[in-house]
Amino acid sequence: MPQRHIGDIKGLQRNLLRFSLAGVMLIAALTALFVMVPMQIQLRDASVTHLTQIARSKADGITQILSRTKSIAAQISSRTRARTLLQSLESGDIGKTQFDAAIAPIFQAAMDSSEEVLGITRLNSRGETVFSTGATPDRKTWPVGWEDSIDALVSGPTAMGYGKYLVASSPILTPDGRHVGVDIVTLSMARVFDLFTGHADMGKTGRAFLLYRDGDRNLMMALQDGSDIERVENVISKDLLDEISVWSSPAGVAIGDRVTAAHEQITDGLALILRQDVDEVFGDLNDNLIYSGVGVLGVVLLGICGLFLLLNPLSERVERLSGLMETQLQLALDNMPNGLCMFDEDLRIVAYNRSYQDIYGFEEGFLQPGITRSEAFWHLVDKGLLGPLEDHKETI
Q: What is the side-by-side strand order in the sheet with 259-267?
């Protein structure tokens, strides 16, 4: 006799696997919604914060270099012997030739003491050049306010030849505070460029630019190689530049369609801009999140496979026990002298014995679990095994 409940057991297995897979998908969706998405947002914020911190650190480094530039210029202007020679020249106590011969070794020693100093120009109180050695920048590139300032000033970057330089002005003051002249010192930008050698912790696509003003124009220089950028828009779009508010805010960050940009204002006319491709900032994060999601999904699937492997031997054992019990039940039924047929609540055959089949004359193989009582009756009617009946429907 076929084992009816074996199908139920296998159906249970299929349902268990089906609902488990549905559970996996639900877990994956909930994980993405409540874990992965917030994690991605946090990681993106962390990446943007990292770029901002790098910008702040590099800007601080440039600020220190500018302060050092002013300090070097101030040290040159504070040399007593050089100041005395200028006063003697102005008072007529010495001539120009004697002045040049005396001051040249002083300035040469100053240049030799610092590899950053590339040129020194000394001016008298009327702004006239009285001595110059080394690189001499054009006057229009000198710091604004150099004539009257009592503090050292710095401007730049300034182009001379094939290089970029910083220009510092430092007043020459007597011990009683009188302004007797100004030194214009030309200095190398090598220390600035050194801050951005290689990728400088900015990733493979990270680029650093110095934005500075020339009147109403915004000029830009690449800090990795010192090259001029002819069009600012080639580096950062106008919309993105407006968003980070370079000149109106001390710092800012903006995420565009293709690049992420951060800026730090160094002076009123000097700002550092770091740019990095969006794909590099967020591409690895997205990949890592996908890998993490696949990993979580894989772990859950492995758990389901383990559960299936655990239940499969159990179901096979249940199947064997069920078959054994049904075989024993069938033997017991077949050994009964009377015919027996059992129906379920839907009037479908659940079990029967050989005597029942022989008594009613059912053909071999017709009776099967699941056949309804009505089907069995009409089979007997069609075979003429029940004799003449007035009303078949009423009989059944």
A: 228-229, 217-222, 207-214, 270-277, 259-267, 251-255
pLDDT over 90 at 255, yes or no: no
> Three-class SS string for 33-81?
HHHHHHHHHHHHHHHHHHHHHHHHHHHHHHHHHHHHHHHHHHHHHCCHH
* CATH assignment of 77-191, among 3.40.250.10, 3.30.300.180, 3.30.450.20, 3.40.50.300: 3.30.450.20
Q: How many whole angstroms separate alpha carbon 306 and alpha carbon 195?
A: 56
- Give the residue carrying structure tokens 């101030």: 74
Residue carrying the six token digits 């297995």: 13
pLDDT digits (tens, 9 = 90+) for 104-162: 999 999 999 888 999 999 999 999 999 999 998 899 889 989 998 999 999 888 888 77
Q: Which one is the CATH code of 196-277: 3.40.390, 2.170.140, 3.10.450, 3.30.450? A: 3.30.450
Q: What is the DSSP string of 335-373?
A: T-SS--EEE-TTSBEEEE-HHHHHHHTPPTTT--TT-BH
Q: 109, 153 in Cβ contact below 8 A? A: no
Domains 77-191 and 196-277 fall in the same CATH topology: yes
Give residue limits of the domains in the chain: 77-191, 196-277, 341-395
